[in-house]
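Page 42, continued from yesterday. The earlier attempt failed because a stray header line got pasted into the input along with the sequence. Redoing it now with the clean sequence only.
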Amino acid sequence: MSLIKPFALAVAGVSLALSTASAVSAHAADLPGKGITAIPVVSSVAEEQFQTRIVAEGLRRLGYDVPEAMEVEYAAGHLALANGDVQWTAVHWDPLHSAFYDKAGGDARMGKVGHLVLNSLQGYLIDKKTADAHHITSVEQLKDPKIARLFDANGDGKADLTGCNPGWGCEAVIEHQLKAYKLSDTVTHNQGSYFALMADTIARHKKGEPILYYTWTPLWVSGVLVPGKDVEWLTVPFTSLPDGRKDTNTSLPDGRNVGFAVNEQRIVANKAWLDKNPAAKKFFELASIDVNDISAENTLMHDGEKSSADIDRHVAAWIKAHQAVFDGWLTEATKAAQSSK
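This time it went through. Structure tokens are written below.
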């Protein structure tokens, strides 16, 4: 069920400010995070602010000082975590970002905690009209120059794939798969600003032109180009990932193999900081956000509610809608701190 409508209604009815008194009935002096800084790190993807700010608000209600997030791309963000320049991130995609994690020092310097967002999907899609007219279901069919030319947007005879920004991790998977599936001669991986490229892709779709693109969920894109209605997922002939693993789940819920690992978004924190902060660790372990809630909020951003104040309002609405559960996380986090003394 889509959560966009009820989430939007909830947001419309919320005016409460963040960082107000929570249901945890503790004086500020008794809060486990009092006097401790907890700097988050995010990428340049604005749509990641929602889940980051939900977690940040929980830490604030535990007494932590949570300043504005440092904004860098994923590789640099993991290095900052390992070095202690920042303390945590809520947007580590596992396993997509595992190479960034390992190269920055891995478990010796950081810790993966909890399971914040499950069932984050990725893959290639084309417009449904072209898929139905030419019976296209697999990326393997793009090896045929005649099929590839259907998606040629610039007249060079090759299919134009709206792809992934350098430094995000997904670009490495795409480049690997273009070679593995022998598509390099017929498909061009267009990179740059993903959201600018997607704006052009959506505009071409509105004109009735064929489109080929990469995307992920949760994100607003699949609310605008709805799989099964406007577009169709493309399958892959076999699983081929840069890490060489064959046992990774790369299938949609209906069993179709779309080639990209089904990810979960996990919180990663600096190990030394995590070891000293059992309250934060417990909160990280318990925090959970439905993937559909993030897609719904991202759609609100795409529809114009994208200022920092708008995002804070969305966060406040989400917390209010899940108040009992959220307060339960805070209670358990406080208990974890007390039992560690």
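Notes: The longest helix spans residues 323-339.
Reminder to self: strip header lines before submitting.
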